[in-house]
């Protein structure tokens, strides 16, 4: 019987225990895949949304580490447009609002006739064109979630708005959002004259130092404000960073529990096979060969659990993608790199969990083992 075949025989000889151990590993690996995918998807979704607008810099009060930037007077936008290297600027107000009976949706208010409207693709109807008309455009995902189409009405806070158009965007969060004019969202949320941030497009040909010059001018002229790239805005978002930290912590706990489960199962297997292991040592097996066999059993168990965990994780992400409270807000497609790392992690769990039982079996006294009952 080959080395691997003997390890498989020992695993399959205790199917119930082996299955439960593999399931423990699978749960840990599935937790890693789901939590890390959601955390990175949350970050990626917002980054895609900011990048899709074609902004070079975003100006606001991001240093407070709030989930959304602190609102400030929209009049700041006029001052920013006057900067020599700025081609155009547009104020933005964003909020998360419960719409009728649906889960909370992202609602964005953009300045009329600004460059922000250029990157979204109209599918039906038209975009809100006047600050005086209570109209909104729905992203394709938002339209499905609300069950609304062009001509229907949508209640936002205490006001009713007519759906004038449907659109799609390369950014998932925008396809799952409601678009309206900045003035209308300010009115709906009682934030007249306020924005979350100002998106800036710089003049072409300004060179690599143009952004740094604008940053310095913003700090000098507008105390308490800063100009940041998309990556910097994401790094300063406490919600995103907290989600990543919690995902890592929860995943670590799940992995430790899985590794302990492997250790317990393999150790019990060794204790039950003391005489068998002693016989192998007596007939000439090298202690390192015994150690390798036990370690291989542990690794095979963890690989089986890792593959099951990857499957469970993908199924869970597909289910979450269809959940109304998550759909259109977070990317839920795991990267191939993450799946590969998940399999490596499962092998690591098997190695760590099997080290002690393997060491114990390799150092078993032969005479004592042969007389073990």
Tags for this model:
alpha+beta, single chain, 10-stranded mixed beta sheet, 13 helices, two-stranded antiparallel ribbon, 373 residues, 54% helix
List the helices and strands and how they pair.
Elements: H1 3-12, H2 15-52, E1 57-60, E2 72-73, H3 76-81, E3 86-97, E4 105-110, E5 121-125, E6 135-139, H4 140-146, E7 153-156, E8 159-168, H5 172-175, E9 177-181, H6 182-188, E10 194-195, E11 197-202, H7 210-221, E12 226-228, H8 230-235, H9 238-272, H10 274-282, H11 287-322, H12 336-362, H13 366-370
Quick rundown:
By secondary structure, this protein is an alpha+beta fold.
* Quaternary structure: single chain
User: What is the molecular shape?
Assistant: elongated
On the 0 to 100 scale, the average pLDDT is 80
Query: N-to-C terminal Cα separation, in Å?
Result: 25 Å
Describe this structure in words.
This protein is α+β, with helices and mostly antiparallel strands and 373 residues long. It has two domains: 3-45 and 240-370, no CATH class; 57-228, no CATH class. It has 13 helices and twelve strands. The strands form two sheets. Strands 1, 3, 4, 5, 6, 7, 8, 9, 11 and 12 form a ten-stranded mixed sheet that branches. Strands 2-10 form a two-stranded antiparallel sheet. Helix 2 (15-52) packs across helix 11 (287-322) and helix 9 (238-272) runs parallel beside helix 12 (336-362). The chain starts with a helix and ends with a helix. The mean pLDDT is 80.
